[in-house]
Give the backbone structure.
Amino acid sequence: MDGGEVQGGTTAAWMERHRQMYERATRHPFTVSIRDGTVDLSAFKRWLGQDYIFVRGFVPFVASVLVKCCQQADNSDMEIILGGVASLSDELSWFKNEAAKWGVDLSSVSPLNSNLEYCRFLRSFTEPGISYAVAITTFWIIETVYQDSFGFCIKEGNKTPPELLGTCQRWGSPEFKQYCKSLQRIADRCLANAPADVVKSAEEAFIQVLELEIGFWEMSSSQS
């Protein structure tokens, strides 16, 4: 499977080492059902409302990654990460527009347990003790899971419903894939120069993101 990973670095080795979990996160029955055209639209609407809440929690996380970047002696990554921060305003507007189209009242949506757990995980990165290498690795894999999941929905042979193509193209586009690769290159560079304990923490965060992403898809399917 092509997860779009940059070859030869630490992150590519982790993707191979944890391939089974990565595939569970990026080929979950929920997103596969979108590609197959069999998705339960009530589940899609649930995902839409829950992901809007998630993105609101994702904003301070990405801002914390940017702050950590700016504190580095070499802060040349700033523009790439700043692009991610800037795109979130448009993303929140997109969710509001989609919710209106699908009749989802965002003001009445409460976060479900899996979403609450994921948002707690994100908040932990605002702590000053979390290194830039761990934070940027986490940012990369969160974005990559979405890119790979929704990119699969628009690959050749898909039966994705026309009304969901815009959603899939938002995260599955070649442009977003290139952005994810840029984040991966930054993560690999940071990990190559990091002490062993930081690399271990980054891999643990990588695994935890995959677990949380699986839980988020499950939540969308089952309201857990």
About this structure: The chain has a mean pLDDT of 94. The longest helix spans residues 41-70.
